[in-house]
Amino acid sequence: MGDDDRLIFSPDDVDLARSPLRASLDVPTYVLGAFNPGLTRLPGGNLLMMVRVAEALCEPVAGNNALTIRWSERGYVLDRHPMADIEMDDPRQFALAGRRPPLLGLTSLSWLLPVELSGDARQVVRIHYDKAVAPSAPYMEYGLEDARISLVGGCWWMTVCAVSSQRHCTLLYRSVNGLDYEPLGIILDHQNKDMVFFEGKPGGAFMALTRPLGECYFLPAPDSPWAGGPAIQFATSPDGLHWKPSDAPGLRARKGSLSALRVGGGTQPVLTPQGWLMLYHGVERRDSVGVYRTFWALLDREDPTHILRQEDEVPLMEADPGLTAGISEQMYLPTPVVFTTGLADAGDHYVVVSGEADLACRMTRIAKERFA
């Protein structure tokens, strides 16, 4: 395993004695995954990963009940759901049997852990447990997922997916130093797991990738090249808080491609001489989860809704079982998944971080000439 592509952080690197759940939850837990990290460069030159820690119960079943962890104003509590009433084909969640649309329960609760890396991304410098981002309101009672961080206008903006029985929404956090994040509340009030700010202001406004989800989608025309289904869309904002979706179509999955099931935002778009570079994920149908791969696209410098290039035939990155061989006993997903979530400029190459197998954080160096 070379230094250009390796695991940089894994479940064994998390000290659950310092978990925010320890403040009120007195039952044994373990790290189901430490993955899908947002990435940014700090003012001093080091890199910061914002790692999603999925913390699960060691004994998720008590008698005839499945247990879930939930944040409440009195602390973290356990809820009980009769096993006879649920169905489960994904180890990360279960659903109430026969309920349509589905009502889901999670087998873990996720919070965010800032992990500081050296400037060259070769080693972990410090794990900032004191700056962890954890649920703090009812609209995030079941956890926080998949941070993305962008440096815009001298501030660091972090989008996070929040999960609750109220709604499945996108939250915004802001930092003036890249390390301490203040919550700014909900900015998208619908299910959207992949909102990512551009690192800059095209046309003088904030711009973001979104991926709204729904219960149904409609067929494209028979002669259309597009597959239909969940796709990457664009939105603009005057202040980062209030967003208008673009009228222009976004980046969609093509028929017959390896991402024909759906696509979604990955890294924050960064400006290059060729245009805005974005790495995104595409999903191929297989089993219950699907195969996740990383692809890339270039967007017009002045009008990013104009897609200059979409490289979706040959994956930029695929899951690599060799990377997780040393922790294979912790694997719980049988399907290959690489979920790219952050990018940082490192001179003649980019440092790219991803979630590998929904288990650990993968660090990859990719030469800039790869995108020429």
Describe this structure in words.
With about 375 residues, the chain is mainly beta. Strand 5 (about 65-70) and strand 6 form a beta hairpin. The chain is about 0% helix and about 45% strand. It has a single domain (about 5-370), classed as 5 Propeller (Tachylectin-2, Chain A), CATH 2.115.10. The chain starts with a strand and ends in a 5-residue tail after the last strand. Strands 20, 21, 22, 23 and 24 form a five-stranded antiparallel beta sheet that branches. The protein is globular. It has no helices and 27 strands.
Can you give keywords for this protein?
five-stranded antiparallel sheet; mainly beta; four-stranded antiparallel sheet; Glyco_hydro_beta-prop_sf; single chain; glycosidase; glycosyltransferase
* Overall CATH architecture: 5 Propeller
Give me the number of helical elements. 0
Give the beta-strand count: 27
Distance, first to last CA: 26 Å
- CATH fold type: Tachylectin-2, Chain A
Highest-level CATH class: Mainly Beta
Shape designation: globular
